[in-house]
Amino acid sequence: MPHSPAVEVRGLVKRYDGRAVVDGLDLTASAGQVTAVLGPNGAGKTTTVECCEGLRAPDGGTVRVLGLDPVADAAALRPAVGVMLQDGGLPTGVRAREMLDHVARMYSRPLDTDTLAERLGLDAFARTTVRRLSGGQRQRLALAVAVVGRPRVVFLDEPSAGMDPQSRLAVWELVRELRDGGAAVILTTHLMEEAEDVADHVVVVDHGTVLARGSVPELLAAGVEPGSTATLVVHTASDVDPTGLRERLGERFVVERRSGTSLTVTGAVVPATVATTAAWLAERDVLVTRLDLGRRTLEDVFLDLTGRSLR
Ligand code: ADP
């Protein structure tokens, strides 16, 4: 069977007041995969997905969802596309559970709303109006509404914003199930841990264009060379204030205190960095109990690509 991408964005341009906030962006998302659009705030992630959702018309380039134009073919796409907007986008006067049941009735083959409500913990606030929900509760309801119609394509904009860790896990479990059921899931996030955890495919975006794309292992392996960012984790037997170490290593390194007895050095860590750190600690009679070179993360990849931190 020919395999066309669920979402295909080519050379997308979107301008606000003459300024291109999306500037020639390419994006492909496939069925049965979670695609994460990762980038700092203001990178153009929301604008990009809003163009895919048909909420904004591009100023240039093309957007195809399931082979259709999200603006011109909005009616045809509606039953097949689930959308979770950043602010929830839900009517504020409706009770949570009524909202979900109402939306479910609009689809021919909806998910069982009792099960969905239980999984996302909606029962705890079933009779509360949307207006009075907390940010995290509103997010969970918005997710339920986005997926209840068994969409083939799901857009989730910063889905875990404001959620507690337990809800976040429930959300990721649901996202994985949707993917395993063959849906194309496209999520935006500025949290690299989130992208690392759930994404099959990551598109790193900054200033409205794509800096890098690939699977998480591909991105982590790409471009590792002397000078790439790494993190040195030092565990000590006693408390240590790393202020002086910052001065010793210079401004190319970020020295952070993790707890009283551990600190991290992030930057282009080489053996000399380790030696300097160890010598500085020895001068202070601090016993080093463990030295680890931390795992490379997508944060390090972003730092190497842009010279800036993602947060
Ligand atoms: P992200 O989702 O990556 O944080 P956005 O797509 O929300 O980025 O925003 C990209 C840029 O576009 C930001 O500088 C933002 O201020 C600007 N922007 C977004 N929406 C509008 C709008 N409706 N009018 C003017 N500028 C906007």
Automatic annotation (TrEMBL):
Bilayer topology term: Peripheral membrane protein
Gene3D superfamilies referenced in this protein's UniProt entry, alphabetically: P-loop containing nucleotide triphosphate hydrolases
Nucleotide-binding in keyword set: yes
Pfam families in UniProt: ABC_tran
Coiled coil: none
PROSITE patterns reported in the protein's UniProt record: ABC_TRANSPORTER_1 (PS00211), ABC_TRANSPORTER_2 (PS50893)
InterPro entries associated with the record: AAA+_ATPase (IPR003593), ABC_transporter-like_ATP-bd (IPR003439), ABC_transporter-like_CS (IPR017871), ABC_transporter_ATP-binding (IPR050763), P-loop_NTPase (IPR027417)
Domain of life, per lineage: Bacteria
Keyword terms, alphabetized: Antibiotic resistance, ATP-binding, Nucleotide-binding, Transport
GO molecular function: ATP binding
Compartments it resides in: Cell membrane
CDD domains: ABC_DR_subfamily_A
ABC transporter domain sequence ranges: 7-232
Protein name per Swiss-Prot or TrEMBL: ABC transporter ATP-binding protein
